[in-house]
Specification:
Elements (H helix, E strand, L loop, with lengths): L1 H14 L4 H28 L4 H20 L5 H11 L2 H11 L4 H33 L2 H21 L20
Protein name: MFS transporter
GO molecular function, one term: transmembrane transporter activity
InterPro entries: MFS, MFS_Cyanate_Porter, MFS_trans_sf
Length: 180
């Protein structure tokens, strides 16, 4: 999602009638918002009893952002830029889930190598596929792919955020650490 947003959001805005410079600023706004979101999401995901609400909230941000792009591309431009920026928190969430699902450093390294390798390979095809579809269908094909990818992302995130019993640990949520 992030690679497609970086590669194509400004083009979409420009095609919708937003001046080129403003389209660039919208992309910058979206990317700038991803920075503080990236700092908050991992902490939030690790402090909740389950990270699933974070998975759903970020997916809903992407969904809402894409829907605003389709229904109000110019009037809602700042809204979709903000929503896509917040949705960009899915990347640090994915990295956090790797650590939450691993018991040992070796397991973390193995899972991380698989998830990031497969994830980057899949993500790298996104902008190319969107470009190909855009050339053939306008924005219809790319949005169909984005909605399908979002459904896949939500399903994988939901599965990755499921409660996992660990040997020697109770199924209850960990006790919060007292701050002195």
């Amino acid at each position: 999602m992030a690679f497609v947003t970086v590669g194509w959001a400004a083009q979409f805005a420009w095609d919708s009638g937003v001046p080129a410079a403003t389209a660039g600023w919208l992309l910058a706004l979206s990317l700038a918002l991803a920075v503080p979101v990236s700092l908050v999401v991992p902490r939030l995901a690790t402090r909740l009893a389950s990270p699933r609400p974070v998975v759903v909230a970020l997916a809903l941000c992407y969904l809402a952002g894409y829907l605003v792009m389709l229904t109000a591309p110019v009037a809602g431009a700042c809204v979709w830029a903000v929503l896509l920026g917040v949705g960009g928190g899915t990347y640090p969430l994915a990295l956090t889930l790797i650590g939450l699902r691993s018991d040992t450093p070796a397991q973390t390294a193995s899972l991380s190598a698989f998830v990031q390798g497969a994830g980057y390979l899949l993500a790298a095809t996104g902008p190319l596929l969107v470009g190909r579809l855009y050339a053939g269908t306008g924005w219809t094909g790319p949005f169909v792919v984005l909605f399908a990818a979002l459904a896949l992302q939500l399903g994988c995130g939901w599965h990755a955020a499921r409660p996992v019993p660990r040997p020697g640990l109770s199924a209850a949520a960990p006790e919060p650490v007292a701050h002195v």
